[in-house]
Amino acid sequence: EDQVTQSPEALRLQEGESSSLNCSYTVSGLRGLFWYRQDPGKGPEFLFTLYSAGEEKEKERLKATLTKKESFLHITAPKPEDSATYLCAVQPGGATNKLIFGTGTLLAVQP
Amino acid sequence: ETGVTQSPTHLIKTRGQQVTLRCSSQSGHNTVSWYQQALGQGPQFIFQYYREEENGRGNFPPRFSGLQFPNYSSELNVNALELDDSALYLCASSLGGVPYEQYFGPGTRLTVT
Description:
The complex is a heterodimer. Chain A is an all-beta fold. Chain A is globular and about 45 Å long. Chain A is built from no helices and eleven strands. By secondary structure, chain B is an all-beta fold. In chain B, strands 2, 4, 5, 6, 9, 10 and 11 form a seven-stranded mixed beta sheet that branches. Chain B is globular and about 40 Å long. The termini of chain B are far apart. The chains are: A mainly beta, B mainly beta. Chain A binds chain B through residues 4, 31-32, 34, 36, 41-46, 49, 87, 89, 91, 94-104, and chain B through 4, 6, 31, 33, 35, 40-45, 48, 55-56, 58, 88, 90, 92, 94, 99-107, 109.
C-alpha cells in the first residue's frame, strides 16, 4: 500500500537554527515527490517537485533532496515567517495524477 | 494568470443535507482534483476530473460526486451529510501531463452540525 510518513510531527526552532524535516515513503512506481507549505486555514502552496533519487532543489532558505526511500527538506537559518505546516506528497504510478500526502510537520520558528 | 479559486469560503450545514462546492481551475489547466483535509491531517484524495470525465477516485462513498464543465471549472457535491464530513475541501488544478504539479485553491471550510 502506498504510504507517506513525515517526522517529526512538530518542530520548534529558534530563528537562525537550521534543521531538517523527513519524509519517508513506500510507493509503487514513484512518478514524483512534492513538498508543499500550508498556512493555517489555507490551501497548500507548492514548493518543489523531485523526480529521481539524487535530485536536489533549492528556494531561498529551503532545500529539498530525494533518495529511493525518503526526502528531506532542509531549512537553513529559518525566520519566523517560515513557520507553517510542511506537507510531503507522492504521486504513484497509474492513470491518475493523484497525490498521497503525509500528515505534515508543524514548524514554529521563534524570534 | 489567475490562480485556483473556490467558493464558498465557509459553509455550515446540518446532518442529512446536501452541499455543492465550486472550483475554478488555474488558467490553462484541464485537470481538477478534489481533496478532503480533516483537522491535523494531510489532504485525502477524493477524485479527479480530466476533460469532463472522472479520472480516478479515492476511498470515498458514492454520495461524494462531481462534475467538470467545458471551461474546466468543477463542482463537488456531497449528499446526506454526516458529522465526519466536516473538513477543509481543497480543489487543485494541473495540466494533464508532465509535470504533475498540482496547484491548490484556498479551500472551503465545511462544518456539519
